[in-house]
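WARN retry 2 of 3 for item q-0093 after timeout on previous attempt; input resubmitted unchanged.
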Amino acid sequence: MSLVEKIDRQRLPQHVAIIMDGNGRWAKMRGYSRNTGHSEGVISVRKVVEAATAIGLKYLTVYTFSMENWSRPDTEVQALMSLLISAVHRETPDLMKNNIRLRVIGNLSRLQDSVQQTLTECVRQTSANTGTTLVLALSYSARWELVHAAGQLAADVAEKKIALNDITEESFSQYLSTYGLPDPDLLIRTGGEKRISNFLLWQLSYAELYFTDTFWPDFRENELYEAILCYQQRERRFGKTSEQLN
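OK item q-0093 returned
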């Protein structure tokens, strides 16, 4: 029986988030440039999205470029932006064909105009699609997101659009860039590191964490299925006891 056949389609995580790590180390081990590693990583994104769609996963968020990544050498940043534009242009027809909706979160104002325009057009074209929602976290930082949300909330309180007593976890969530998306059930991090790296700090409160030594360019369909199978073997209690769940 193949890995995909072992997956219980009735117990899929609704939302999987991935920290795609290891492109540079994968390339270095093979004597390639870091940009080659990033190019190979784009292929992994395509394969994983296809695999997610094949099993009916509703939401997939990938940590594409962090706020901290802006501190990398300019040549690498520019190469990543060019790679992003070409990848979005190339993949948009397949997103439409496979009924995939694109959404982008992060401090997008820092992106080049050409990148913003490319993303905006792809989001527009795919907005009516009803299959898997693919979320790109670009120029993203969870701390930035929380501070930004708090500032917007404070402004609305000052303008009496919301009362202090009406602030709840649910109302605060409406100010986050992920508003309208369910919180991730499963976080996958590739590349062997075991940390969250300023990613979806609010949203990952109850996510199951899965760490693998596999570098992102080597993470493909079967690796995704292995992570989901591991998730399906866990008991999610949300503060309750096993006896209460049973």
